[in-house]
Amino acid sequence: MSLLRSFRFSLAARAGSCPVGAGPLLLQAPQPWHTLRPGPRLSSSACSKELLMKLRRKTGYSFVNCKKALETCGGDLKQAESWLHKQAQKEGWSRAAKLHGRKTKEGLIGLLQDGNTTVLVEVNCETDFVSRNLKFQQLVQQVALGTLLHCQNLKDQLSTYSKGFLNSSELSELPVGPEREGCLKDQLALAIGKLGENMTLKRAAWVKVPAGFYVGSYVHGAMHSPSLHNLVLGKYGALVICETSERKAGLEDLGRRLGQHVVGMAPLSVGSLDDEPGGEAETKMLSQPYLLDPSITLGQYVQPQGVSVVDFVRFECGEGEEAAEAE
């Protein structure tokens, strides 16, 4: 017996199967998501290339996983999509548990406006590289949409503006929306599983206004993507609530300038037009030197415009992380 035949005989004996002279041993790569056993294989016609391509385009998952999903679900496209999401979510929860506790100092602020409702959200990740990934930006969009729907579903009769905040736990439990099942925490797990970084849904703010009020907004370093519709992304964001007797021309530009001031000067309160002008250390918004013209106060800039500033919200991405780390 030659050396080669002896080697094959030894392998066959260990496996308890292949006889001498059998073909070369084939090693199979481990299958992803191996915790679930796939169902019976489909015929080649049922698991067609067309179905496979359609599922791949719709979900973005690999061809291997899309094929396994179609085989497991008997060629049912809808069931296969649901199966893929469930497996990805399980993978995401597992990875999220491993990554929990890692610092999330980067991320994005998202601004979304619809009618009389405006929301500002913050979602964090570990690196700026991931914050520029479309999948992460889509997560920010889902959080903004979930917050918007939550706000719009509040049954309140507005005689004046209303403002609210949601913390991380409250955000996590919000439903994704009418077109998807589950909560925002499920979408967070999916994103962690896909991108491999720890992420947090940090906070959200919402504002609703009746007639006679206007919400100015500004996002610093604004990014727009056609696939994200009217969502605006950046590292800083501000909402400024103004009261006005009539809808004036140039109100949108005025609101943007007020938002720029809030982002740049970081006031802590609105203050009053009767307050004495302050310097660089002033924390009352109307008494601060106007960001775009420091020779006057913001109050002196606003007064001739025929609007009254009544409130504001300011978000800075990663705000508070340094202080928490120092503590």
Question: What is the strand and helix layout of this fold?
Answer:
Blueprint: H1 3-15, H2 49-59, H3 63-72, H4 77-99, E1 106-114, E2 117-125, H5 128-131, H6 134-152, E3 162-166, H7 168-172, E4 175-177, E5 180-183, H8 184-195, E6 200-208, E7 213-220, E8 232-234, E9 236-244, H9 251-265, E10 289-290, E11 293-297, H10 298-302, E12 307-316, H11 321-326
Antiparallel strand pairs: 1-2, 1-8, 2-6, 3-6, 4-5, 7-9, 9-12, 10-11
Helix pairs in contact: 2-3, 2-4, 3-4, 4-8, 6-8
Quick summary:
This protein is of the alpha+beta class. The chain has eleven helices and twelve strands.
Total beta-strand segments: 12
Please give the radius of gyration in angstroms: 28 Å
Q: Helix fraction?
A: 25-40%
Q: What amount of the residues lies in strands?
A: 15-25%
Report what the structure shows.
This protein has helices spanning 3-15, 49-59, 63-72, 77-99, 128-131, 134-152, 168-172, 184-195, 251-265, 298-302, 321-326, and strands spanning 106-114, 117-125, 162-166, 175-177, 180-183, 200-208, 213-220, 232-234, 236-244, 289-290, 293-297, 307-316. The chain is an alpha+beta fold and 327 residues long. The strands form four sheets. The protein has a five-stranded antiparallel beta sheet. Strands 7-9-12 form a three-stranded antiparallel beta sheet. The model is unreliable at 1-47 and 323-327 (pLDDT under 50).
